[in-house]
Amino acid sequence: MERVRIIAISMAAALAVGGIVACGDGDGSHFGGYSPYTYGQDTNGTEPADASVHDATIANSAAKDAASDASHDSGTDANDGGDGGPPPNAFTDAGTFAPDAGELTERANHNFAGNTPTTQPAKQACLDCHKNGGAAMTFAFGGTVFADDAGTKPAAGVEVRVRDTNGAFTSVYTDTHGNFFSRTSAATFPGQTGSRTGTNTALMVDNAANGNCNSCHNGAGQSFIHVP
């Protein structure tokens, strides 16, 4: 009987240790390339023999949890997407991808050497002309999306979405030349941007400073916009 009691006590101790390991502090997890969002969980371990020490441990753990909750709740939804969630991005609440085609950008008054045809504006800084006081109608944003890093394969039917400073979303689609633009809505920059197809999504790491996308994504200063 004494041997049975010893085995039972050993098993209980092993379970207690296992419980401590399972409930230890985690190191968070990555979500879509964002930095780890760490969730801490304090454990008091086994109950100390001294009740006052045990009470102090509980109080200290509760204080830590309260401080952690206060720190988490202090973040705004614009930064963390609400309690417990990752930061929002250009496709937050966008739903599933819906295939569509963008308006064709070929225009008689376009004349861009190197493009086929020359009447389409691939790789051009659209808002150099399409701006308030410019030579063409005003765009909120515009650019070109490719299916490769080198910018040789235009990507048609890609959804480009902008989440501006005010949290307003605008979606447009690329035409057969990979060009996209928005002339029906205003967008307040800087803003979060991204592009996606039915199978791939590419999010811009930094916020876009303005809507003149190809002025930066020109293959020199930065790579062309592309969906892998």
Write the layout of secondary structure elements.
Blueprint: H1 2-22, H2 51-73, H3 77-80, E1 141-146, E2 159-163, E3 169-173, E4 179-182, E5 192-196, E6 201-203, H4 213-216, E7 225-226
Parallel strand pairs: 1-7
Antiparallel strand pairs: 1-4, 2-3, 2-5, 5-6
How is the biggest beta sheet arranged? 4 strands, antiparallel
Average pLDDT metric: 74
User: Count of DSSP helices?
Assistant: 4
Alpha-carbon distance between the termini?
68 Å
Uncertain runs with pLDDT below 50, 5 residues or more? 1-81
> Per DSSP, what share of the residues sits in E-state strands of 2 or more residues?
5-15%
- Give the CATH level 1 class of the largest domain: Mainly Beta
Radius of gyration: 27 Å
Domain count, please report it.
2
Task: Give a count of the beta strands, DSSP E runs of length 2 or more.
Answer: 7
SSE arrangement, N to C: HHHEEEEEEHE
Could you tell me the CATH topology label of the largest domain: Immunoglobulin-like
- Give me the CATH architecture of the largest domain, please: Sandwich
In order across it, which strands form the biggest sheet? 3-2-5-6
